[in-house]
């Protein structure tokens, strides 16, 4: 079982255009779709499609559109009533694969609701293989909340913990978490730059990204899966570092690509694969999501695993990181 937490769920609405998006102009949509969303929800959808049980924990009522969408899709969930309604995230997808996203802030969670959500997650984590804390935090939630949840879940000791977030909650994960640390963190290049103070453009280079990720390993994280967009991804653990390039695809939408990469990694981990093959699976799933339209997420039939190769990166050392930072 993989348990995911989506503290800030959404209805993901995608508007597909047949022409380039022009600011200030009138456009007519070729297609509009809506799906239950939020990063943890996306991970649960991909994991379930991959044949592994998943449980999505989220704030919501029995009749809100996200919960109804999960029920209709056959995704197991545990909803904690908060009295609010989910946000809507709008994606505008152009024919060349360019996507423009407009995300609402979400419904504020008050302390009693947050405590109930934490309790539901802790209870659901018992016996799980992985717990995934994923996405933004809604208004009113302390930025260090993910860090606190990592400590609580680590103390329970029943599951490995993966975190995929950004901005202040991501920074707080390293500032606030004491002896407890996540087993896996999945930043993109911008998020890796936030954590290390390096230039995001320089981190598009796999070796530089791996060196930056090594610094996070030294701060206690078990593994770092850094997604590099169209370039692929790197994986760094205490045992080494690897890079896998993305297979050739026609990009149609980047929505859910990072979530799919994380799901692919977790599926490979549960299958007992070694780090290089876990990275290959992550890149294959992320690339498959990019090749699909709108908010569509990949299943096993969409994955081109044989087209992804992983190579060790021997120069991901702290000294190399220092050299990169001062050059």
TrEMBL record:
It comes from the Bacteria. Residues 9-298 form the Carbohydrate kinase PfkB domain. Pfam families: PfkB (PF00294). The keyword Lyase does not apply. This is 1-phosphofructokinase. CDD domains: FruK_PfkB_like (cd01164). Keywords: ATP-binding, Kinase, Nucleotide-binding, Transferase. SUPFAM superfamilies: Ribokinase-like. The keyword Transferase applies. NCBIfam families: 1-PFK. Belongs to the carbohydrate kinase PfkB family. The lineage of its organism: Bacteria, Bacillati, Actinomycetota, Actinomycetes, Mycobacteriales.
């Amino acid at each position: 079982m993989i348990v995911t937490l989506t503290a800030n769920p959404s209805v993901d609405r995608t508007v597909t255009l047949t022409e380039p998006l022009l600011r200030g102009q009138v456009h007519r949509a070729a297609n509009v779709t809506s799906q239950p969303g939020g990063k943890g929800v996306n991970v649960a959808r991909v994991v379930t499609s991959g044949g592994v049980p998943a449980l999505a924990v989220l704030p919501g009522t029995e009749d809100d559109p996200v919960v109804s969408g999960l029920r209709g899709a056959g995704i197991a969930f545990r909803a904690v009533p908060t009295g609010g309604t989910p946000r809507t995230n709008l994606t505008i997808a152009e024919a060349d694969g360019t996507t423009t996203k407009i995300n609402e802030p979400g419904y504020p969670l008050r302390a009693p609701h947050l405590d109930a959500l934490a309790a539901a997650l802790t209870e659901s984590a018992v016996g799980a293989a992985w717990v995934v804390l994923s996405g933004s935090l809604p208004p009113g939630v302390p930025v260090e909340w993910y860090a606190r949840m990592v400590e609580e879940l680590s103390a329970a000791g029943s599951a490995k913990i993966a975190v995929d977030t950004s901005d202040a909650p991501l920074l707080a994960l390293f500032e606030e978490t004491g002896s407890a640390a996540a087993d896996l963190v999945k930043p993109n290049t911008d998020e890796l730059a936030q954590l290390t103070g390096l230039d995001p453009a320089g981190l598009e280079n796999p070796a530089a990204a791996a060196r930056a990720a090594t610094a996070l390993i030294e701060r206690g994280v078990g593994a770092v899966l850094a997604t590099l967009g169209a370039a692929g991804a790197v994986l760094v653990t205490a045992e080494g570092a690897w890079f896998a390039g993305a297979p050739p695809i026609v990009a149609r939408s980047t929505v859910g690509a990072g979530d799919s990469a994380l799901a692919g990694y977790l599926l490979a981990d549960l299958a007992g694969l070694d780090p290089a093959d876990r990275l290959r699976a992550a890149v294959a799933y992320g690339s498959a999501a990019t090749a699909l339209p709108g908010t569509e997420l990949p299943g096993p039939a969409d994955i081109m695993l044989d087209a992804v190769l992983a190579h060790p990166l021997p120069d991901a050392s702290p000294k190399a990181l220092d050299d990169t930072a001062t050059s």
